[in-house]
Amino acid sequence: MTTKDKAIVFVTDKGYLVPSLVAALQIIDQPKVMAISDLFIPLVDVEEALLQQLRDTFTAPGIQFLPLEASLFLPKEGTHFNQTHIPHTTLGRFAICDILPSTYENIAYIDGDVQILGDIFPLISHKVKPGHIATVSEAIWMC
Hints:
Layout: E1 6-9, H1 17-28, H2 31-36, E2 37-44, H3 48-57, E3 63-68, H4 96-99, E4 106-109, H5 121-125
Parallel strand pairs: 1-2, 1-4, 2-3
């Protein structure tokens, strides 16, 4: 069995769980993508019963649910954090390396409020140069 070195990750809380699941299921429908990557949904501060229910329900599709404690990424007491329309859980993407197995060398973080409309194999199969981070613009309204 070959160990995959690519992970696709959505970080969510209960508020964005449904749209994150929809996007994850759209990815699961892409066999070429799933052949080279594993899919994770870390859930911020959710109870174990919900985690287990999700694991039981989505075992077959291949989504792996992980607990993510907000204490891993929330600003420390006394730190100024400019609260805008973006929730604190958005910072959870910075803690995924703390909870993912270390076998993943390439991690694609995807926001949970997206819809996967086409083939994402070129994105997921892309190898980022060591020491670099690749990003994409999500401002489609500007195009």
